[in-house]
Amino acid sequence: MHVCCAYLGGTRTGIMRSASYADPSRAGTIARRLDDRVARLSTREAALGILRGVDTGKAYFTVGRDATAARMLTRLPRPILDTMVLRRFRSTGQDPPPGPAP
């Protein structure tokens, strides 16, 4: 028996379109934004990627460019990753969430 773990990128499914929202009037906008910016894989592409990954025999694999990028980011040293996240927040004019208490 072989067990593996697939790290999926954003996949277009009906889950977001049928979800409950705190502000139901924004549900359509949120679902469209997810489809446009995050959910770039079709369910067929995701399934084919999973099958390809299983065929490799690896313990884990990624499916989709965003999953691969996220996996690579997690391997960066923590200070570099923190700096990248902080710069991203500042570039959008947002305040970063508070960090853990010292």
Key words describing this protein structure:
mainly alpha; 2 strands; 102 residues
Give a written overview of the molecule.
47% of the residues lie in helices and 8% in strands. With 102 residues, it is mostly helical. The protein is flat. It contains 4 helices and 2 strands; from the N terminus they run βααβαα. The model has no long low-confidence stretch (mean pLDDT 86). The longest helix has 14 residues, at 43-56. Strands 1-2 form a two-stranded parallel sheet. The protein has one domain. It has helices at 27-37, 43-56, 65-73, 78-91, and strands at 5-8, 60-63. The termini are far apart.
- Count of DSSP-assigned helices: 4
Mean pLDDT over the full residue set: 86
Determine Rg (CA atoms, Å): 17 Å
- Largest beta sheet: strand ordering: 1-2
Order of SSEs, N→C? EHHEHH
Question: What is the CA–CA distance across the termini?
Answer: 45 Å
Low-confidence stretches: none
Determine the fraction of residues in helical runs and give it as a percent range.
Answer: 40-55%
Query: Structural class, please?
Result: mainly alpha
